[in-house]
Amino acid sequence: MKLAVAVVVASATMAASAGSAAAFSIALSGGPFTLTSNSVTFSDSGGLVRVSCAGTLEGTLDTGPIPLARGSAVGAVDGGAFDRCSGGGGAPLVVQPWDVEVESVQGTLPNGATGILLRLVDFQVLLTVTILGMPVSCLYAGPLGISLSLTGTNPYRTGTTATGLGSSLSKVSGSAICPSTISVSGVWTIDPPQTVTIF
To answer: For residue 159, is it left (φ>0), alpha (ψ between -120 and 50) or beta?
Structure first.
């Protein structure tokens, strides 16, 4: 089973204040990139829904300079697929491409940054699952977070691992027995790693 997806980053507490972050800009090595995961899981706290898939997202990052402020666009995702799913499936509901935005930077700016959070905008997914023996469709929407660690000195290098932030999606429509919220979690690998300069 294969499905395309749109993904967004979850809101996260700014490690640097909005005012101080906005005083800086960011530049990336940019170009085409791929995020892959062996297991991205959609689940609810009550155990009614648990769909796990291998995932791939493909897109392009800009080089900048880009204002280092929440909501600044840094690129777009223009392709994605989940396959080898267990527990159900889903379908895309947002037309590609999907914007990639800055959410926040962790650490001290500009020379003590330790991570960057990105938002892949406008995630919605229609899950087809069996709940209490009944096949149902449940539409969910909301943010998904992805965190990239930064290593070395400015200019930094991202690690190869991008961590999902355990985002929560809310039910938009579907059967009355669909859970009201589900979480999305997973660990992604980014290829190629990015060079990040903050100035």
So the answer is: beta
